[in-house]
Amino acid sequence: MNIDDAAARLEALGNPTRLKIYRTLVRAGEEGLPVGKLQQRLDVAASTLSHHIKALVTVGLITQTREGVTLHCRANYPLMRGLIDFMVEECCAEGTCAPGGPVKLPREAA
Known about the structure:
Layout (H helix, E strand, L loop, with lengths): L2 H11 L2 H13 L4 E2 H8 L3 H13 L3 E6 L2 E6 L1 H12 L22
Helix pairs in contact: 2-4
């Protein structure tokens, strides 16, 4: 994955509604959810949901298939794993922790 693709995907997830949609689809597993059920779970207007789904599809984070009259959404797990891998691939490259070891992030100041 290159930096531009990663940035576009992270930007898409930077919107709270899109992040909720994506997390809901990730929780749904490989079978995903029909758009109607997704709309009910999130209590989002159909036009708003459509707009946000389109943004997630455009960057490849979710896929859609039509099953009869039902539009079905699924998280793109390989792409999600690729994005996560991209984020951690150089963890500790210039630091003192062991690459591949547990990543210990500093705690935020209270």
